[in-house]
Write a structure and sequence with these properties.
Length: about 350
């Protein structure tokens, strides 16, 4: 099969890197990829994509009719949703648009939802302990969907896609690092926010419990999406729907090791007063420093989901980055922040409207 792709959140950290990866594969001779449509929020973001071989569009994803019309008029076969993992309405509109496309053309259609491993963290009341992406993840998330918005949306996507006859995949990146390859936002939400808070306080803080962070470099994650898309378009049979959960962990590092390394790098630049780290006096102070509701602070900067990634092998995904290369790159992370500042658009902004949702 050949197809047209719509990438939402195409100016974001993950979305922009995915667009760049797909373009590289298209230029490298992947004939199955026809046209890439890049959905963004603002005219300025659309302009940033003009130099690329994509069709940039300001698309209101909350408008069900506009979404369906765009998918149909542009013969979209596959949607990658990076816009949000916490808004079921947007996912529903995209899935409904694909359903109408399938009903009109008779072709298979595909929906890839970018979600997050915070769904499997005890900080978000995940009750089932360690989980593999080869387990029945859908059933486990469904049982605990009421206690965390990400799990609620994950289960919704699976159920809505099944009803609509849309083949769905849920992709779970961990905490990401590295400079993205998009045209607009090239930084992750997590590490730059910690660097900014540390500079503001002249001190690197950490949470009191030392927990392990599953990590991946954004380039490794983008490569996974590229391999997944190619596998779909050549007709490879892949676990999908209720079995379509993919965890993208490539290495694990303790948050305390990350903070210690950041403190050393920031102190060497004269940006904090000491190489020693301190414990956050309160969750409220930590949350305020990075601009999210207190209920999300631990799940963003002290998360430790116990997960095992096994399905990546199905499409030949092999991460390049390791624990050692990550720790050695933290100085570059600081340099990137000093050059680019906080992310222009990120998960940090999407969390603010949902502070009323219970995560406890």
């Amino acid at each position: 099969m050949v197809g047209n792709i719509l990438v939402t959140g195409a100016s974001g950290y993950i979305g922009g890197s995915i667009v760049a990866e797909i373009l590289n594969r298209k230029r490298g001779g992947t004939p199955e990829i026809l046209i890439i449509h890049a959905a963004v929020r603002s005219l300025e973001q659309a302009h940033s994509l003009k130099r690329l071989d994509v069709t940039a569009v300001q698309l209101n994803l909350s408008d069900e009719t506009a979404v369906a019309d765009y998918i149909h008029s542009n013969d979209i076969d596959l949607v990658i949703n990076n816009a949000t993992s916490i808004d079921p309405k947007i996912a529903s509109n995209l899935i409904s648009g694909l359903q109408k496309q399938r009903e009109t053309t008779g072709k298979g259609v595909f929906f890839i939802q970018t979600t997050g491993l915070s769904a499997f963290d005890e900080n978000t009341n995940w009750p089932f302990g360690e989980v593999k992406d080869t387990d029945n993840v859908y059933d486990l998330e469904r049982q605990s969907r009421e206690t965390y918005i990400v799990r609620e949306v994950d289960a919704f996507v699976i159920e809505q896609s099944k009803k609509a006859g849309v083949t769905s995949f849920l992709i779970f990146p961990p905490t990401l690092h590295g400079r993205g390859s998009g045209t607009w936002n090239q930084l992750s939400p997590q590490i730059p926010a910690i660097v900014q808070a540390s500079i503001n306080y002249k001190q690197v803080y950490k949470f009191g419990e030392c927990r392990d962070a599953p990590l991946a470099h954004v380039s490794d994650v983008a490569r996974f999406y590229g391999q997944l898309i190619e596998s779909i378009f050549v007709g490879k049979k892949l676990p999908a729907g209720e079995d379509g959960h993919y965890f993208l962990v490539s290495h694990v590092v303790s948050w305390w090791d990350i903070m210690d390394q950041l403190a050393a790098n920031l102190h060497a630049r004269g940006l904090v007063t000491t190489e020693s780290t301190k414990i956050w006096p309160s969750d409220e102070m930590a949350a305020e420093s990075v601009g999210v509701p207190a209920s999300f602070a631990h799940s963003m900067w002290n998360s430790s989901p116990k997960v095992l990634s096994e399905k990546g092998n199905i499409i030949g995904w092999k991460p390049v980055w390791t624990r050692e290369s990550f720790l050695n790159s933290l100085g570059q992370e600081v340099d990137d922040f000093l050059e680019l500042g906080l992310p222009k658009s990120s998960l940090l902004h999407s969390l603010k409207p949902v502070s009323g949702h219970s995560t406890n």
